[in-house]
Amino acid sequence: MCPVKALCIKGRPRDSKRESAIAEASISLIQEVGYERCTIEAIAHKAGVSKATIYRRWKNKAEVIVHAISHHAFSQTPSIDTGNLRDDLVELLLAKVKVLKGPDGAVIASIMSAANTDSELAKAIPHSVRDGESQVHKVILERAIERGDISPNANLELLAEITPAIMTYRIFMSQQPVNRKFIESLVDDVLIPSAQKIATNK
Amino acid sequence: MCPVKALCIKGRPRDSKRESAIAEASISLIQEVGYERCTIEAIAHKAGVSKATIYRRWKNKAEVIVHAISHHAFSQTPSIDTGNLRDDLVELLLAKVKVLKGPDGAVIASIMSAANTDSELAKAIPHSVRDGESQVHKVILERAIERGDISPNANLELLAEITPAIMTYRIFMSQQPVNRKFIESLVDDVLIPSAQKIATNK
Amino acid sequence: MCPVKALCIKGRPRDSKRESAIAEASISLIQEVGYERCTIEAIAHKAGVSKATIYRRWKNKAEVIVHAISHHAFSQTPSIDTGNLRDDLVELLLAKVKVLKGPDGAVIASIMSAANTDSELAKAIPHSVRDGESQVHKVILERAIERGDISPNANLELLAEITPAIMTYRIFMSQQPVNRKFIESLVDDVLIPSAQKIATNK
Amino acid sequence: MCPVKALCIKGRPRDSKRESAIAEASISLIQEVGYERCTIEAIAHKAGVSKATIYRRWKNKAEVIVHAISHHAFSQTPSIDTGNLRDDLVELLLAKVKVLKGPDGAVIASIMSAANTDSELAKAIPHSVRDGESQVHKVILERAIERGDISPNANLELLAEITPAIMTYRIFMSQQPVNRKFIESLVDDVLIPSAQKIATNK
DNA sequence: TTTTAACCGAGACGGTACGTCACGTCTTGTG
DNA sequence: CACAAGACGTGACGTACCGTCTCGGTTAAAA
């Protein structure tokens, strides 16, 4: 007999393998057909799972997607070390564009849809996205600090936020090209000056 | 008889008043109930128009919205003149946040939905958004140039693109707060250093 | 475990009460407003059922109606016994006219619409109509045989088919009156001679 | 000046060629695609005419069809003369079946639809159908009278009505076969006994 | 000859019903 | 209880056809 009533869960326990199957199915469906045509029924079928099993765990399509995204290992930008900050940043951004235009791009785009529908829950998503992204940023920037390429006044967090913001904006909203030329001007005209700024007159 | 065959339009001409009625109805519905609950039937009813009249012009709900947005006059940020660049920018960004969180915020958010579904046509949208936004930017920056506050090396277009990008990202995607503190650090740590950068090491 | 695989029905079984509710709703709507104004949505609403539930079972409005009709118990002509064949037949036909002009008339008329659209499935309908009709016929004719009023050469099935045919034709197609005078001449000039015919010269 | 006001018709007169073009287009569309898919727009297009021109003349689709049918020359059964009544009738009915199963069959079937929808106006239609059909009947029957094959008591009109009724019923409603065997039993067991009946016991 | 009024083709328009699709819930039998 | 299967109510979608209307342009009788 179960001594602690509240912990005594009767019946068949949930199979945790289902969670991951559903998450994987969701992501690959988004990559294949896009968010709009990624239906719950299709996810269920692809995951070899029934709809009830999905809705027993999450109350919404949005939450299903949120969970899938937040457990998705986004393709990582490779570690970069050219020896100087400027070229490190350019290479990093070029690598990021490649990711955003690859299969994970559709996933990122779907975040934006989900975010609109489900503003409350969408809050949780970008952490995972940002966390992954900022890792490489940090390495590059820390190396630059050691070299003395970056002013101690620099706002590193903000710098790490600007790049995904402007690239997402260009690629998914204004549909403008994000080529090497644009990236170089972004690095030379914004990121480097900001990283090297002398003092705040605040 | 019509002298120029190609110009001789047969049949009852489309009533352009319908187009604008539909566009207005779409926008105000998005503002009232959001993109998801803005149905074609509701638009038709509000515009005093039949569904057929809508689908005769656009093949999709997405295209209807795209058209509506691209013809929408977004609320403008007021003209600002504090006398110095830094405060101009802070005031400008504060005003923009207000807009993005007001009724037009829902409209902007809906752009992101439409953009996913309708990547081809979505290209046309942001022009209207950017064009409106960049106007005030230009005034502020030009005034700063006259005062000598901005280096001739500054990349003004890029500067004008960063602000909407990061604000949209924060508000609609990462759901992070966009308060005075954040805006000030954005201005002081990124925009000003970039505007005043001395030379390109390219 | 289900021992017989083929009989093991998975998933929630269809609720057969829905079928009958839909059929009843269809028939009563046809009786009330006629075939043309009997919409699927109205049927669904009257049956307390959703459109999807209807379209899950039948692929067409026509098939819905076909099913409804083929499960409808048409109002029966009462049993008749005047003691002689001639008057039995006259009374029977008068009773039938009454039925065809009553609520079931609209239903019979709708058969003709459905039959045009849905020639394949319409085959199934008239069984129900004929089966009900022929019952009373048989009783009358068998009694007449016992009395010796009918020649053993008579083609009883054909006789039983002529009356609904000519009455349907008159009422629904040529819109001619079907009054007592017409019925008497039909009985005296066609049915009785045919029933009493002496021999086939074939 | 026009002396009789009522007769004074100004403006471009209606082109009567349109009426026939519309009627022909209607009939051939019914023959090709059936009543259900014979739309006003298709008729207009096929007749090289605008919808307005159609609705200027008739207020309904039903009336358009009614007019077309009532001006349609149904394919005639050929004149028959085998020398005896029984074989004349059999040949006649076989010829009629052929007609009903040919292109005009669809037209006849459409009458039934129109009759249901438009009970008021449908009254006018069958005259044209019956008139054409009864012609051949009459010739055959009159010849039989001359030969003395038919009793002077026979109800010829009723006889002429039974055949189309039962054949229409079989072909379009109960979908039963109308083959030579059925036709012979109809002639031998019903038509001939009725035609030769000795006296009315009325 | 000019005016006038109805005709005509084309196709926009409001309306109504259709048949489809996805969501999220519910109901079976089975493990 | 979990689970697969799939029925169910709901509500929006996009389509099709009806019958009306509004254009520019034509045609024949009336003035």
Essential attributes:
Tetracycline Repressor, domain 2, DNA-binding, homotetramer, 10 helices, 2 domains, elongated, Arc Repressor Mutant, subunit A, 202 residues, mainly alpha
Oligomer category: homotetramer
Roughly how many Å is the radius of gyration of chain A? 21 Å
Compute the separation of the termini of chain A in Å.
67 Å
Q: What do we call the CATH homologous superfamily of the largest domain in chain A?
A: Tetracycline Repressor, domain 2
Give the ordered list of helices and strands of chain A.
HHHHHHHHHH
User: What's the level 1 CATH class of the largest domain in chain A?
Assistant: Mainly Alpha
Describe this structure in words.
4 copies of one chain form a homotetramer. With 202 residues, chain A is mainly α. Chain A folds into 2 domains: 16-70, Homeodomain-like (Arc Repressor Mutant, subunit A, Orthogonal Bundle); 85-196, Orthogonal Bundle (Tetracycline Repressor, domain 2). Chain A is 68% helix and 0% strand. The first copy, chain A, is built from 10 helices and no strands. Chain A is elongated and about 65 Å long. The model of chain A has no long low-confidence stretch (mean pLDDT 84). Chain D binds a DNA duplex (31 and 31 nucleotides) through α2 and α3.
